[in-house]
Design a protein that fits this description.
Layout (H helix, E strand, L loop, with lengths): L1 H12 L15 H7 L1 H7 L6 H14 L8 H14 L9 E8 L4 E8 L1 H11 L2 E10 L3 E6 L4 E6 L9 E10 L4 E3 L3 E2 H11 L11 H4 L1 H14 L6 H9 L2 E3 L8 H4 E3 L7 E3 L31
Antiparallel strand pairs: 1-2, 1-11, 3-6, 4-5, 6-7, 6-8, 9-10
Helix pairs in contact: 3-4, 3-5, 6-9, 6-10
Length: 305
């Protein structure tokens, strides 16, 4: 069934013909997502329902501008990775299928961006991590970190009275179920900005776009979570998530390894662009929307034309 659906999607991209003789009727992306429900169910961890994933995905189509105009296989692939990892798209801060304009193929494609709360969820679910967090230190906080051979001394007292001030640095701490403990070295604002300069996507004018532009604090927290996970024992799901994050998946087979079939988005100035000028945020379900990273992403008008 998955291969048949993939053939239909490919045929639609190639002008609506399947084998050169038969005209394939256009099927909306929402209907294709619903048709994929049995395949998503096969890929999902036990106890999770594909019907919820489908409902979340349909909400994404309504609230994320241009997502319904993306290469359909890339959207279905992003959702397949969400199914395999048991993450909810655009809910609870887990993950987002975000559209960007691919100037080489002259179309929108969906890139799966896993939020830091999604990585935290996977850490707890693995059974290896009992607690993990990422924190922002402000200039008026009382903060110090001293390393010792037998123990580390960490003090972070957020300011209670007055304004917290600008961001000073980021760090992450974790405790393992076996009693181990991990704390990352702090990333100063300058170091995090340097990380952003190296990894953030850019448009034709080489201006930073996407979450690194619109949600720098949350992306800093996500970065520290990932830095910490590099120091910790990881589950297979965590390893897959770290490889699939910010990638494009065009393989819809439920048994395919998400990390192995994910294409890394090669963001080259003038070739691949994220959307600019975010529009007004569309209201999502009041009890499910996450006000952090990002708040229902809203790419704006296409600047590549």
């Amino acid at each position: 069934m998955t291969r048949q659906l993939g053939d239909r999607v490919a045929a639609q991209r190639n002008g609506g013909t399947g084998n050169g003789r038969e005209v394939v009727p256009q099927e909306t992306l929402a209907k294709q997502i619903q048709r994929m429900a049995p395949e998503y169910q096969l890929a999902m961890p036990k106890g999770m329902e594909a019907t919820q994933l489908v409902r979340d995905a349909i909400t994404c189509l309504r609230t994320i501008r241009h997502l319904d105009q993306c290469d359909q296989t890339s959207v279905l692939g992003a959702l397949m990775t969400c199914a395999q990892l048991g993450l909810r798209p655009a809910v609870l801060g887990h993950a987002w299928p975000l559209p960007f304009w691919d100037n080489r193929d002259k179309c929108y494609k969906a890139q799966l961006v896993i939020g830091y709360k999604g990585f935290v969820e996977l850490g707890y679910r693995s059974g290896k991590v009992s607690a993990i967090t990422s924190r922002i230190v402000r200039v008026n906080d009382d903060f110090s970190l001293v390393y010792h051979a037998d123990r580390d001394e960490l003090i972070h007292k957020p300011v209670v009275d007055g304004l917290p001030g600008e961001i000073r640095c980021f760090y992450s701490t974790a405790r393992l179920t076996n009693g181990g403990y991990s704390v990352t070295e702090p990333y100063s604002i300058a170091r995090m900005e340097a990380h952003r300069e190296e990894h953030a996507p850019r448009n034709r004018d080489q201006a930073i776009t996407g979450p690194w532009r619109d949600n720098f604090p949350e992306m800093g927290q996500k970065t520290m979570i990932l830095v910490n996970y590099k120091l910790l024992p990881k589950s297979a799901e965590m390893a897959i998530a770290m490889e699939a994050d910010e990638g494009i998946r065009m393989n819809l087979e439920p048994e395919a390894n998400a990390a192995e079939v994910t294409e890394r988005a090669q963001v080259i100035p003038g070739q691949v662009e994220r959307e600019e000028n975010p529009g007004p945020a569309a209201a999502g379900p009041a009890d499910e929307g996450d006000p952090n990273f990002p708040p229902v992403p809203q790419p704006g008008e296409d600047t590549s034309r």
